[in-house]
Amino acid sequence: MKTRIITGIWAGAIFLGLLYLGGLPFLTFMAALTVIGYTELIKMRQLSFKSLPVLLFGAGALLPFVGLYEQAENHSLSLGLSPLAWGMLIVLISLFWTVFSKNVFTFDDVAFLLLTAVYVGVGFASFTYIRLLENGLIVSLLIILLIWFTDSGAYFVGKSLGKTKLWPAISPNKTVEGAVGGIVLALMLGMLFEWIHPTVGFGKVLLLALIVAVVGQLGDLVQSAYKRHYGVKDSGALLPGHGGILDRFDSMIIVFSVLIVLGIFG
Is 13 inside a domain boundary? Predict the structure, then answer.
């Protein structure tokens, strides 16, 4: 527990400090987390980091940051091709690699790498995009608080009142009562936050809180599902007492991605 608390303090201080700074420092930090998250999933799959497709898709995971860099620095970054064209080229080269490797590297491996690159790349880039908005700091803080309060509500309500298993095949400890408790606490926090610091309006904050609470818990279940599939307890060991980067950002990268897809802040 002591290790967990110490890690939480220094990691939280770094994260919140860079979130406050925004701009290029935060963008660089999110790009670094993208690479780390990508490597965590590669290790779960037990793919070689010397494999050409693994390296290419690792670079591909950073393609969503190209436009964000241009936005943050206010100048164009020439890559010769568009990020979409580069992404398609990476996919094609990797498909060709299944032939050159005589199917040691398989079609399934290509699909895994593509999904991994999109999952972490778009997830962390979506977080960065919202932070770079004019009111991005306060909006990002609101979303993060909603996620944290959802998790806390789900944990404490589940511990005290939980009886009905939510999804035992994926996460045996989560309960329906806990999930509902997390949603209720998020709605309450959203209203309180908007009352103290008017940000998006009461109607929108309730919608935001509901989306964050539901999608955040789904994001956590997504990670539980693939960790169970690969037989690992934690996504990594970078954060002593907490696990890996994906263990800490599993809900966030899904939530921020969904908010962009729905056009809530896009």
Answer: no
